[in-house]
Amino acid sequence: MARALFAFTRDLRLSDHAGLAAAARHGDIVPVLVIDVPSSARLRRSPRRAAWYCAAVRSLDADLRSRGSSLIVRRGKPGPVLRGLARAAGAGVVGWSCGYDAKTMRGDRDLQSALEEAGLRALPVHDQPAVPPEDSAAGHRGGDGYRAFVPYFAQWRTLVPTPDAGSATFAAHDIASEALPQPEEFGAEGIDTGPAGEAHARRTLGAFLALPVLHYGVARNVPAACETSRLSGALSFGLLAAREVVRATCDRASDPFLMAEERSSIRLFLRALAQRDFFLQLGWYNESLAEEPLQAKMRGFAFARAHPLLDAWQIGRTGFPLVDAGMRELIATGWMHPRVRAIAASFLCFDLGVDWRAGRDWWDQLLIEDDPALAAGNWQWVAGVGADLAAYPRIYNPLKQARHFDPSARYIRAWVPELAGLPDVAIFDPVGLRRERQLTLSLFGDGTYPSPGLDHEAAARAFLARYAREVRASA
Ligand SMILES: Cc1cc2nc3c(=O)[nH]c(=O)nc-3n(C[C@H](O)[C@H](O)[C@H](O)COP(=O)(O)OP(=O)(O)OC[C@H]3O[C@@H](n4cnc5c(N)ncnc54)[C@H](O)[C@@H]3O)c2cc1C
Questions:
Q1: How far is the centre of ligand 1, averaged over its atoms, from the C-alpha of 171 (Å)?
Q2: Beta carbon of 381 within 6 Å of any ligand 1 atom
Q3: pLDDT tens-digit series, residues 245-272
Q4: Is 425 left (phi over 0), alpha (psi -120 to 50) or beta?
Q5: 154-174 mean pLDDT
Q6: 235 C-alpha to center of ligand 1: Å?
Q7: Is the minimum distance from the CB of 275 to ligand 1 under 6 angstroms?
Q8: Does a cis peptide bond (omega within 30 degrees of 0) precede residue 132?
Q9: Domains of the chain
């Protein structure tokens, strides 16, 4: 029986798997996981991510064993490792799923050359997005992808729901494996991730679509409201196909008994999934996205690399309660609510004037998600240098945003316990509180919650003036 090798990357599942299905056309699959120096270094950056990854790999191996095969783990350079394994397995084809950030894309190209030079057929396949970049880009601007989300979304909607890509039959093999990756290997011992794997991700999706999706319109803005899907980690490691999430969401939308707001919530959730595909295709067609602003006019704009409040931002002690709550949620859980992400990122870029790349890199050490392309696209968007085509960046007022989106301060109290006992009015106006009540509440002192470290209005005005000068100079 013919065999094909498949190397898992950020696609740690067996069903609805475009890469596996494509490789399986050439024979039974011999499943491989190669841990090279760059992937090991990335896992070391975020211990929570590493612990999650190890749990997901364990689950993948268990699923493969239940299908009569097992994962072959190797540590080393993918080219030589896969060439050797292809020889040992008698496989002429090696498949894997494409990456969407410059580093992974370069690695993919190197791997393709190394395999082809050895006479093997290399089969890189689009699996991460629900809609592959080439499908959405067909017929658009010479096929080099969209730079604006609105027209992209209009096109994307014509291409969903996305069909199941299929799966594979796996070969029983007797090729020895190195040990499965363990958290200790990446400095992540002792971190409890809870369950991670395809079955758990599917249960999370099912539970979300049963009810919370109907309130997504509120949940995506109000961090203390019912839940957003919390699927970002699972999607990032490919524990679930984005295609499956889109299909199941479209199915849910077909329920004839839904109310108008519920339908609108489901549409907003689909829009979020389209945003993911949008940023993946942006990374695919713009390899400099990780380092260089997409907007040519902003390439000379000098963000600061440092600010006296940068350390405070990183650990959630700026004195702006919603920003601090978000950063503390991220540190404690490896995830931050989507609305709060935008507010905390805006604070870094505009109130502190600090480079979006510094924020992106800090979050990269804390997030479970492993999505360089989504991180770069979103950070550029917030910083006003990327795919958002608004004339000026949206600068969020962190105190107004808190009043609006956390009106009973439930989220803030949960993550900033120093403020838990204070009345709402004090939480929403820490500046006024400092003026009027600090003596009685002894709020702002060593070891207590800090006073706001800057004047938001003044900082935002100064930033906008600089931004406007840059835009005029480059016109
Ligand atoms: C500065 C900044 C950085 C971000 N970095 C990342 C990142 O590294 N990885 C990441 O997955 N998301 C990132 N996001 C997008 C978004 O905040 C997260 O996807 C979301 O918070 C994840 O929670 P959820 O799964 O409950 O999302 P939901 O709101 O339930 O959305 C469902 C899924 O849609 C996708 N999605 C939603 N919004 C976006 C978006 N704006 N861009 C891309 N995909 C989206 C995600 O896969 C998400 O899991 C970032 C947003 C900002 C403002």
A1: 36
A2: no
A3: 999 999 999 999 999 999 999 999 999 9
A4: alpha
A5: 96
A6: 10
A7: yes
A8: no
A9: 3-127 (3.40.50.620), 128-163+198-285 (1.25.40.80), 296-474 (1.10.579.10)
